[in-house]
Amino acid sequence: MDYPAIQLRNSLPLSLICDNIRNPGNLGTILRSAAGAGCSKVLLTKGCVDPWEPKVLRAGMGAHFRVPIIANLEWESVPGNLPPDTCIHVASNQDPNAQDEPEHASGKASSYGWISRPRNLKAQAGRGRLPLDSNSEEDKEAEARDQNPELTVQSYCESWTQGPVALVIGGETQGLSLEALQLAESTGGRRLIIPMVPGMNSLNSAMAASIILFEGKRQLQKLESTRQTFPASG
């Protein structure tokens, strides 16, 4: 597909990775924001809704024809679809400085920050790596937490764009997958949080993606402006 020349000229070394985005309206809105922020491409892992589904197209408002979209990817193939040395960050709502949630707060997986059960957990159990009777929800959550990589947490408005970067946004039902966190850890990525007032659990995934992507756009443009003003001496 040919993309508008003006879109290509304004493209940034900023990619978006959608992880289990299953709501058509959310995905369409996310694609629209990605195109508006100047993302170079959008990657959709398996489990995301079909980007060409009519409701996604309607919510995208033409974004499909302005930014490359690569869908139905296995996690193993994600790095090969990104520029070399890309640092992958994840959008998260796990703020260690936030006040504890009240006891009556919902236990539902948050919009874009909680960790979903690894997709190959059942296969691991069959190979003897996990007990076969790990069927309760408590066991599943404990297993996922045990494998949860430790990523540095920072505010989305602090610097995170020193080179090519990618942002992972998780769906509102499953949250971030373990594979997404492991990939971020392998590239030195971080958890990017959007601070909110106490008592608020999370933002809609499309809203969170929009906020962080446009902050990434601002940081990358500022970085490029600084390099042009103060070029590195040879």
Q: What tags apply to this protein structure?
A:
234 residues; alpha/beta; 32% helix; seven-stranded parallel sheet; single chain; methyltransferase
Structure, briefly:
It is built from seven helices and seven strands. With 234 residues, it is an alpha/beta fold. It comes from Alligator sinensis.
Describe the structure.
With 234 residues, the protein is α/β, with parallel strands linked by helices. The protein has a domain at 14-95 and 149-155 and 162-192 and 204-229: Alpha/beta knot (3-Layer(aba) Sandwich), CATH 3.40.1280.10. It is built from seven helices and seven strands, in the order H-E-H-E-H-E-E-H-H-E-E-H-E-H. It has a seven-stranded parallel beta sheet, sandwiched between helices. Strand 1, helix 2 and strand 2 (41-45) form a beta-alpha-beta unit. Helix 2 runs parallel beside helix 7 (205-229). 39% of the residues are buried.
